[in-house]
Amino acid sequence: MRFTPFPKLESHRIFLRRIRELDLNEILFLRSDKTVNTYIERSEDRKTKNLADALKFIKELDDCIETETSIAWGISLKNNPKLIGSICLWNFSKNHKVAEVGYDLNPEFHNKGLMSEALKAVVAFGFYKLHLDKIEAFTHTDNKRSKNLLEKNGFILNKNRRDADNPFNIIYELENPKANKL
Ligand SMILES: CC(C)(COP(=O)(O)OP(=O)(O)OC[C@H]1O[C@@H](n2cnc3c(N)ncnc32)[C@H](O)[C@@H]1OP(=O)(O)O)[C@@H](O)C(=O)NCCC(=O)NCCS
Question: Which end of the chain is more exposed for a tag (fewer CB within 10 A), N or C?
């Protein structure tokens, strides 16, 4: 599993590219805006309250890429490099066969199908480049937009699983159709 050189992705309307220090203000916005974070729970030490916290977070993303523990892409429209959202693969299983996907998008850009585009690109990367067997998504049971996104992209709710850390979360799964089924 190698994230260097950084695997830039693209789809019809968007680029998925590395998040840089230049994206500081947009990262602060995405991680602190009330609408974006309605259903996202973070412990006090994981909250991004100011530019210094945002910088620290971007440095953590860099560290994760170096150590190959997780990868986050910034989402930009093809005609404007400004960051409008992010999507990541993280929480890889020990054997690197399962990962979790996470995402957020500036509300100005909701309801345009842009996160669906990003998710398709990241799922394809996860299955065909990282050879994951499964991608999971933990989402708040009231997060209709997130559930809609996942269901439209083939993720299936696993009613038998619970998130030990958050009783309000439900867990969706997407199996790699090419995974070895023994
Ligand atoms: C979750 C989140 C990314 C979903 O964003 P979104 O814009 O609703 O997602 P999509 O990209 O799937 O857009 C889908 C909508 O765009 C519409 N759309 C408009 N133009 C479109 C186009 N050209 N192509 C496809 N869909 C289009 C679709 O009709 C669809 O709405 P519908 O399913 O009600 O018909 C967003 O709500 C968000 O950032 N939430 C806050 C962060 C968050 O909660 N993250 C999850 C943590 S687990």
Answer: C
CB of 103 closer than 6 angstroms to any ligand 1 atom = yes
Which residue ranges form the domains of the chain, and what is each CATH number?
9-175 (3.40.630.30)
Ligand 1 and 111: CB distance under 6 A: yes
The per-residue pLDDT for range 32-86, each reduced to its tens digit, is 999 999 999 899 999 999 999 999 999 999 999 999 999 999 999 999 999 999 9
Specify the residue with its C-alpha closest to ligand 1, atom 15.
111
Q: Which atom of ligand 1 sits closest to the CA of residue 148?
A: 33
Using one digit for the tens of pLDDT, what is the confidence trace for 127-156?
999 999 999 999 999 999 999 999 999 999
Among 136, 131, 129, smallest CA distance to 154 is for 136
Measure 67 CA to ligand 1 centroid, in angstroms. Answer: 31
Evaluated on CA atoms 33, 29, 108, 126, the torsion sign reads: negative
